[in-house]
């Protein structure tokens, strides 16, 4: 045991006490935005698929014009200070979708089930009324004013073009 020999390294998967393992995660902003978009789009597609399968609509709701309308609602209604968890984000996003389907869709009414992810229907209806009170003028304007629609369309496109994709985020996580 003498002579300055080093002890064997710890087995793989273990770490010496007191020395946190450092993990570096890298991704471009564009990659992360696509991932976030895929995450939200999965909620949107789930609702659309459910309504198609249940016969509430004959064709998919996801069209360019409807996406611009959904963008308007989400941009104006989904504020960070109002959302504290993934469940709250999903509930608020699905409320925006419900209003978009109700306003732009082919049916007079839709079932609540695909849009309702919380047990309290009262909170859902309160969010609906709050959004309608704040945004009804803009909701009407998007169909009446082609210049307003075009501006929103361009705003949405600009959201997706937010740079040349060369920006990278590096996050260090101590575990």
TrEMBL record:
GO terms classed as biological process: axon guidance; brain development
One annotated GO molecular function is: cyclin-dependent protein serine/threonine kinase activator activity
What are the GO cellular component annotations?
cytoplasm; growth cone; protein kinase 5 complex
Question: What stretch or stretches form a coiled coil here?
Answer: none
Q: By its UniProt entry, which Pfam families does this protein fall under?
A: CDK5_activator
Keyword Repeat among record annotations: no
Question: Is this entry keyworded Kinase?
Answer: yes
| Gene3D superfamilies (UniProt xref) | Cyclin-like
InterPro entries the UniProt entry points to:
CDK5_activator (IPR004944), Cyclin-like_sf (IPR036915)
- Name the domain of life: Eukaryota
**Which keywords are on file for this protein?**
Kinase, Transferase
Q: Where is this region: Disordered?
A: 1-20
Q: Where is the composition biased (Pro residues)?
A: 1-12
Which family does the entry's similarity section mention? Belongs to the cyclin-dependent kinase 5 activator family.
What is the protein name given in its UniProt record? CD5R2 kinase
In its UniProt entry, the species of origin is given as: Pandion haliaetus
């Amino acid at each position: 045991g003498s002579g300055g020999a080093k002890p064997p390294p710890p087995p793989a998967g273990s770490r010496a006490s007191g020395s946190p393992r450092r993990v570096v995660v890298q991704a471009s902003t564009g990659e992360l935005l696509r991932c976030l978009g895929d995450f939200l789009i999965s909620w949107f597609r789930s609702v659309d698929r459910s309504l198609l399968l249940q016969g509430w609509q004959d064709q998919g709701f996801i069209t360019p014009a409807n996406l611009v309308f959904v963008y308007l609602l989400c941009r104006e209604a989904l504020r960070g200070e109002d959302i504290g968890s993934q469940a709250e984000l999903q509930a608020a996003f699905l409320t925006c979708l419900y209003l978009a389907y109700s306003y732009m869709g082919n049916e007079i009414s839709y079932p609540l089930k695909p849009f309702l992810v919380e047990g309290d229907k009262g909170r859902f209806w309160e969010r609906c009324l709050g959004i309608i009170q704040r945004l009804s003028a803009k909701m009407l304007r998007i169909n009446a004013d082609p210049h307003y629609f075009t501006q929103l369309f361009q705003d949405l496109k600009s959201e997706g073009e937010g740079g040349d994709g060369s920006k990278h985020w590096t996050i260090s996580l101590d575990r």
